[in-house]
Amino acid sequence: MATLELRGLTKVFGATMAVEAFDLDVGDGELVCLLGPSGSGKSTVLRMIGGFETASSGAVLIDGQDVTRMPPERRPTSMMFQSHALWSHMNVAGNIGFGLKLRRLPRAEIARKVEEALTLVGLAGMGERRTDQLSGGQQQRVALARSLVLEPKILLLDEPFASLDQHLRERLREEVRDLQQRLGITMVFVTHGQDEALALADRIVVMRDGRVQQVDRPDRLYRHPETPFVAGFIGQMNLLQVTVAGGRIAHPAFDLDVTATDGPALLAVRPEALELIAGEGAGRLHRVTDFGSHAVTEIDLPGGERIKAMTPEVPAAPPGTPVTIKPLRAHLYRDDRVIWSSDAMSRTSTRAHAHG
Fold first, then answer.
1. What is the enclosing helix (H) or strand (E) of 145?
2. Would you say 174 and 141 are in contact if contact means Cβ atoms under 8 Å apart?
3. 248 and 221 in one domain?
4. For residue range 144-164, what is the model confidence (pLDDT) as tens digits?
5. Are residues 11 and 39 in the same domain?
6. Domain final residue pick, 178, 204, 228
7. Where among 228, 255, 270 does a domain terminate?
8. Strands 263-269 and 254-257
9. Which of 154, 139, 127 is closest to 49 using CA atoms?
10. Total of domains in the chain
């Protein structure tokens, strides 16, 4: 069993609040991603879990034991950093077995554990290789093996694939996910890439300015963003300033029935949740990009905004063609929180006004 509890975890650097009152429970065998832009505090949280940063206040508990003041080497954790930091004067086996050597394990046991770790990451028999003879992907696998060989209760990864090209990054994250599920190890993974988080995580913690915005499963995070920041940060989203009056959204491009009090609000609509009807309406086709599997159409609105719609086929209409815009699913925000949403607005009356 390996559970992690973070209680009111806070870190202050001088006058800067890097992380504020961070709470999180990670279950046994769960993979949780900390996701956010640079400066959101996600790596600071990870370093406090591993003991590489001292918490200003709050607590870190692993399997119910308070480890907040323990040094890194005494915690049942292992950390894989963004820079794999392999020692060039040691071969692959030496790099992987270094931590076991510090634990004064017998030489034969170290050799056995190192080879087991190499096999786990697909590098069996490569212990005698020099690290400068390895590709970038192989070096990352060695760094992962070095973390796994210590048999940590919790594995911490701080953007380990950020320096790799996209194809290799995707392949390695799939391997890490498969390995994590096979071993049943509890893992906390830091990334600023939403695709990486959506592909890897059981749950995602979206952070901004040292605070938690939302904690949820990837599917719920995408379909039910609770704040405007999450709506705009996860996937592509059209965000429009609108006004609610008498249970309707008043916008030059369309009207939409909503259940919300009157006043200004922010409307969020995914590109794939927009239906386009060419030939009339307030929108104007601006540009179409064909991605093969789908097309992305940019539409200019009367107020000067430009939104995107995703369609399975390339629209036949040329740029400048008027279009009717019909949102099929949407969210409405006010005061930094969601006040209305709908997953199926098929019965909603939506009309586009003529323009020009």
1. helix 136-148
2. no
3. no
4. 888 888 889 999 999 887 877
5. yes
6. 228
7. 228
8. unpaired
9. 154
10. 2
Residue pointed to by tokens 């940060």:
233
pTM for this one? Answer: 0.89
Q: Which two tokens stand for residue 299?
A: 């539409």
Residue 275 near residue 344, CB atoms below 8 Å: no
Please tell me the predicted confidence (pLDDT) of residue 170. 85
The answer to whether 227 touches 338, Cβ cutoff 8 Å, is: yes
Chain CA centroid to CA 322, Å: 37
Cβ atoms of 163 and 136 within 8 Å: the answer is yes
How big is the chain, counted in residues? Answer: 356
Q: In this structure, are 265 and 216 located in the same domain?
A: no
Question: 36 lies in a domain?
Answer: yes
Provide CB contacts within 8 A for 135, sequence distance 6+.
none
Range of the domain at 301: 237-351
Angle of the 92-102 helix axis to the 107-120 helix axis, nearest 10: 130
At residue 51, what are phi and psi to the nearest 5 degrees?
90, 10
Give the residue carrying structure tokens 């820079």: 83
Give the model confidence (pLDDT) of 166-182 as tens digits. Answer: 888 888 888 888 889 98
Helix (H) and strand (E) counts for the chain? Answer: 8, 21
